[in-house]
């Protein structure tokens, strides 16, 4: 049974460019969340989507956006990349969006902005 | 400000002994707590969780203790095994759709 899958695994972009990261949740899970993890820190919440609607948003600028598709997969988009956006981007899936439930993470996408 | 704190960046324990990882939180609205383990180049792996209505939860070698009055939780691993060497993250949830709040992690090293 497939877990959470993310693509690509690694990515190098130039400042000012745009990037799209993709995530497929565990089969049967309808909620997808995105996190950013910079070196030496714990993951930081960016977005949560449930049933194709944004249900929660962390403290990130408007350059970050996301969406969820009818098959519950999700994309995270980042515009006008900055050097500080270099991080591991993690996707997590859970069965619902109300909290108090386990979130299962993918292996992440390592984004390097040069 | 860090709402979830793991004050020990690293911890070294002998194989077979008990590993105790600690976590403190400041937000009294948190009502669900989780521990994750992370190996390099992998995503975090869920280990164990506890609701604020409980003070203890066990799963095999892993036990999580919650002290709400002290806003403190701990993860006990008994006995510690070499494969337990990893970074451990404490996370907390307020029950809404605003995601998990993580600590900075503790690097656990199991010595043979």
Number of helices of chain A: 0
What class would the helix/strand composition of chain A place it in?
mainly beta
> What is the oligomeric state here?
heterodimer
How many strands appear in the DSSP assignment of chain B? 11
Mean pLDDT of chain B: 95
Question: Roughly what percent helix of chain B?
Answer: under 10%
Shape of chain A: globular
Rg of chain A is 13 Å
Shape field of chain B: globular
Q: β content of chain A, as a range?
A: over 45%
Which two chains touch over the largest interface? A-B, 30 and 28 residues
What structural class do the secondary elements of chain B suggest? mainly beta
Number of helices of chain B: 0
Measure the end-to-end span of chain B.
37 Å
Please give a quick description of this structure.
By secondary structure, chain A is mostly beta strands.
Chart the SSEs and their pairings.
The complex is a heterodimer of chains A (114) and B (112).
Chain A: E1 5-7, E2 10-13, E3 19-24, E4 31-37, E5 44-50, E6 53-57, E7 64-68, E8 74-78, E9 87-94, E10 104-105, E11 109-113
Chain B: E1 4-5, E2 10-14, E3 19-25, E4 32-38, E5 45-51, E6 56-59, E7 62-67, E8 72-77, E9 86-93, E10 101-102, E11 106-111
Parallel strand pairs in B: 2-11
Antiparallel strand pairs in B: 1-3, 3-8, 4-5, 4-9, 6-7, 7-8, 9-10, 9-11
